[in-house]
Amino acid sequence: MAFRIIVLINFIVAFASYGVLASDCDQAPPEVNGNFDACCSFPNITDPVIDKKIQEMVKTLSLEGKDSYSVVCKVAQVIFNDMKLVKDNTVDKDAFQKMVDSYVTKDVEYWRQPLKDAYDHCQKTLMSDLAKVTDFFSKPPYNIKKEDCDVQYVALFTCIHLDSFANCPTAAWKPTNEKVCTTMKTWFGKCGTDFNGIKKIISG
User: Which residues contact 157 (CB under 8 A, 6 or more apart)?
Assistant: First the structure.
């Protein structure tokens, strides 16, 4: 799973809180649209062969006139499938954990458990809301139809990224703008990293 694929940023700013929200969670602050990598140093979990395939895929889909949301969805689907993380049409926990153990090097060992915890959290919450997630992304401005792309993969990818950010280890916390980064981290940590808040960020 390549955390640094820039096209995924379209969805990363689209996830936030779920369930019963505190009053200060009703509207996302503008800072949540900031650059995550400018605050938290994520591990470089990537495969050169898959990265190259994705780069070519993005070029081809763009030339075919596919919009960015469709491209992002297809990219996420390819990442999970090509890294052999999918079993029975969903991301397999054992495969994901083995991937983390394989790619997280000793110098960033502190990322191992947060990534596994993020998967557990996101898999549980997203799978229970998958029908809502699929329906939401089938409508404008996304217009991603189930027969064209399975949105569960980009949703899971995004949720894992957000949950990891909200629980960014101290050793990885390297904010370039302390105020903006702290606001982002605090809001995501308090208000959640799941599906329902997506409308609040988009409309915010």
Answer: 1, 8, 11, 76, 79, 80
